[in-house]
Design goal:
It is a single chain. With about 270 residues, this protein is mainly α. It has 4 domains: about 1-110, no CATH class; about 110-140, no CATH class; about 145-210, no CATH class; about 225-270, no CATH class. Helices cover about 65% and strands about 5% of the residues. It has helices at about 10-15, 20-40, 45-50, 55-65, 75-110, 130-140, 145-160, 165-180, 185-195, 200-210, 225-245, 245-250, 255-270; strands spanning about 110-115, 125-130. It has a two-stranded antiparallel ribbon. Strand 1 (about 110-115) and strand 2 form a beta hairpin. The longest helix is centred in the middle third of the chain and has 32 residues, at about 75-110. The chain starts with 9 loop residues before the first helix and ends with a helix.
Length: about 270
Amino acid sequence: MSHAWMPFYIGDYLADTGHLTTLEHGAYLMLIMHYWQKGCLPADEKLIARVARLTPEQWAESRDILAMLFGDGWTHKRIDAELAKAAEIVGKRKTAAETGHQRRRSSANAVHVQSTSTDTGASTFHQVPSSEAIASDAVASKADPRDELWTEGLASLIAMTGMPDRKARGVLGKWCRDARDDCSLVLAKIRAAKAERIGEAVAWITRAIKPLDDPPKPFIKPNGVTAALGRMKERERNERQNAIGDEDAQRVPADNGQLRLVAGYISAAARGPV
């Protein structure tokens, strides 16, 4: 079996080959790459020398040094172990792929269950989805709205507007902020714009996703001075209304004596009880 990739552990390699010359490094790398692809080295050492790209003179000089990195018969225990591991991984992936293919085929076919009507005795057939289809539907029903927005929604926005991916992501982010992170709402508006073929999709969706109104400001209980002033003004208004009538009371200002009375009351309230 030929493998397109080979694991290469740099630390282990340098620890084992620190005594090699540059020429011998190149030769050793050629040998282990050939070993990885073919599963072994040739039985004839002349062919091994050719695999290592060494001349007969270079091979005679470096042969024993290189042989120290291999076992008997030019075997390599580390590469054999890695080949076995790679074969196991390939086998598991192949099995998983075949299992997945079988599941997809079985989920595409419905299971027909024959039942008999208790009233007429006639035979009827009910189409019951397979267990794989039920599991698939359950997973689909639990889809994360955020994931759907940033996949389906993003693709739909780009398709409707033709805007670049980066700009589309920025628009989606703004809509999410305006909707207070309600991804379902944003996705629903994108789907609606797509279904209705809205011309100005961005403007339409922006209007549809209006920022929610700010929450009402909390009620602040008035302090003693403010409450006293309010009661004083209300009492003053009632007295003037009793004296001259409602309409005229709105136009009559308080005199200086009243103002001094209010100011004194506020000052006393600010000092607190004696």
